[in-house]
């Protein structure tokens, strides 16, 4: 006759706890990948590639025709979508917590030419950009969706307000073109001598 002893109770208890842990992990994993449940806190923990994949699903969900670029040799672009004016918009996704730097604008501006896009957009989880980044974006007509806009976009998507969500994408932050287009100095020359740093030419 089968006897139920403490060893069996321990085994059953361990199986129950193991099953419970497995269920909790499954639910957490499901929440992590369900775009309707993603929060800014989740985005802050994503890798760069995860953030790109998330945006691809998000933009398609809110009604855009969206295209993915290759993960390697993407020439500075992470995704492309067609906006409501049927313009091709090239996007660079930057999952940052620090200030966004100059490189992001340089890369997306080059990608705009490569993909023959009509507009360039940087989408970032960063709250701010450096002054040089802002100035170059203004000079090259690169727009931003910063953390605040991204958070609002996520909120509207969760509420099923897709048209309002698209209006945020259609009206990104556009820096003004800087009045000073960089400080240019003429090359020094006097009489028959041209000088730059340690180099000179004497004619």
Could you please describe the fold and organization of this structure?
The structure is a single chain. By secondary structure, the protein is of the alpha/beta class. Helices cover 45% and strands 18% of the residues. The protein has 7 helices and 8 strands. The protein has helices at 6-33, 40-44, 48-61, 102-114, 131-140, 147-158, 162-170; strands at 65-68, 79-82, 88-94, 119-124, 142-145, 188-190, 193-196, 199-202. A 5-stranded mixed beta sheet has the order 1-2-3-4-5, with helices on both faces. Strands 6-7-8 form a 3-stranded antiparallel beta sheet, with no helix packed on it. Helix 4 packs parallel to helix 5 and helix 6 (147-158) runs antiparallel to helix 7. The N and C termini lie far apart (113 Å).
Residue share in helix: 40-55%
**Which sequence of strands runs across the widest sheet?**
1-2-3-4-5
Query: Whole-number radius of gyration?
Result: 26 Å
Tell me what portion of residues adopts beta-strand conformation. Answer: 15-25%
Low-confidence stretches: none
* Largest β-sheet summary: 5 strands, mixed
Overall spatial form: elongated
Q: Tally of extended strands?
A: 8
Mean of residue pLDDT values: 87
Helix/strand structural class: alpha/beta
Distance from first to last alpha carbon: 113 Å
Order of SSEs: HHHEEEHEHEHHEEE
- The number of distinct helices, counting runs of at least 4 residues, comes to 7
